Amino acid sequence: MGVQDTGCLSRVPAGHGLIREYNGSCTFYRDDQYVSPNFRMREFNPSGVRPYGVMRRLVDLLQTMRYSLGVPILITSGYRHESTHESGLAVDISVPRKTFIQVAQAAYNAGFRRIEVIKRTGTSYWNNMSVGGHVHLDVYDGSGITTRGTIYDCPTCASRPCYPWYAWGAGSWWATSQPNTFSQLLRNLQADRGNTGYRGC
Ligand SMILES: [Zn+2]
Prior knowledge:
Layout: E1 16-20, E2 26-30, E3 34-36, E4 39-40, E5 53-55, H1 56-69, E6 74-77, E7 90-94, H2 100-110, E8 115-118, E9 134-138, E10 166-168, E11 173-175, H3 182-190, E12 196-197
Parallel strand pairs: 1-5
Antiparallel strand pairs: 1-2, 3-4, 6-7, 7-9, 8-9, 8-12, 10-11
The structure holds zinc ion.
Residues 77, 85, 90, 92, 136 line the site of zinc ion.
């Protein structure tokens, strides 16, 4: 899955981005055109990469979050040549007027099942996100089928689909087997237990 599987990236007109629809077809939008009620095409490309595009499901889940939070969501990183971002499956966001905990909960409620919460040293998950940090969200389905092969699979997961997850530390990242449920993630956030992520199968 992902935008690179379509072949459409090579056909994106100048000044446009692409959305890969649920049925696999591609829609081209002008950079300034709305792809959902609150998001314009170019918001998924803060790094200015060309060509670029994202999956429709990513847009839809973000819009669902936008409705439930009721305040602007800033996409700090969208399409870029790295990890699931490269397949148009992921965004990093900040919601300056909501806490990390509120944002993680809204993401889960919207349907995201790969949620990573990164805060800065000396801040709390109870702080509004205006203190810095970000939340990574992605719609990778655990199939292992992306242009980046199977690197996103978690080898110890017994069931498929598998949602591998990891947490970021200072200058490095490591695989973690805990928490493996969203409620565990929420408890870790509420206890302000370092950088944390969610991994489930
Ligand atoms: Zn990210």
